[in-house]
Amino acid sequence: MSRPTQPQKKEELLEQCLAAAIEAGALDSSINAIARKIGTSGRMLVYHFGSKQELERQLIGRLETRLREKLWSLQGVSLGETASLAESLLEMWGHLTSPEMHGLLKLTMELNQRAIQGDSETQHFLEQESQKWVKSLFDLTNDKTTALSIFHVFQGAILDFLTTGNAQRGQQSIQVFTETLR
Q1: Element (H or E) spanning 128, and its range?
Q2: Packing angle of the helix pair 52-72, 31-38 (nearest 10 deg)
Q3: CB–CB of 26/70 below 8 Å?
Q4: How far apart are CA 142 and CA 140, in angstroms?
Q5: Domains of the chain in sequence order
């Protein structure tokens, strides 16, 4: 008979694993390699998460939540306040392109690569996460088309930033897009 997992310990391990994944900018390590990075055993991770796939699923969920937290802090800006919306989106862009977010963004691109390669579980997960992003943006703008457009502008800008290191172009795209809302 196995012992029940300890929620607090599991939460601590999840945070440590997320920090290690962000630092590495990847999820492709074995469960034992992840365990070594955070100073525990692979058996302990399996005990708390069941499998590497479940650990990854929970890490990815936490990652997406962290990225949305910044957006949710910006809610309350209405579309009528275009200058405020532009300022809020540019502030979010500045946060997303800061050095401490680089690992998180690289992880999101790794997920996109998995989905492109046909991993149906990742495709399904990313579709759900995309819907959450669009809903959050809708809550910010009160306009579904605008929310979807902002989502796509940010996705393209993030891809460009990660491949070129140029955050200016994303900032310019966001500025130009918000000017079209006037």
Answers
A1: helix 120-141
A2: 60
A3: no
A4: 6
A5: 7-179 (1.10.357.10)
- Six token digits for residue 122: 């990742």
Query: Which of 45, 1, 2, 43 is CA-nearest to residue 20?
Result: 45
> Looking at per-residue confidence, does 25 or 73 come out higher?
25
Residue for token pair 């680089």: 102
pTM over 0.85: no
Return the closest-CA partner of residue 130 out of 109, 156, 148. 148
Alpha carbon distance 162, 75 (integer Å): 26
Whether pLDDT at 77 is above 60: no
- Judge whether 13 and 38 are in contact, CB under 8 Å: yes
| Predicted pLDDT of residue 1 | 44
Task: Report the candidate in 98, 99, 101, 108 with the shortest Cα–Cα distance to residue 151.
Answer: 108
3-state secondary structure 51-79: CHHHHHHHHHHHHHHHHHHHHHCCCCCCC
DSSP 8-state secondary structure symbol assigned to residue 4 = P
State the pLDDT at residue 174.
95
Average pLDDT, the chain: 86
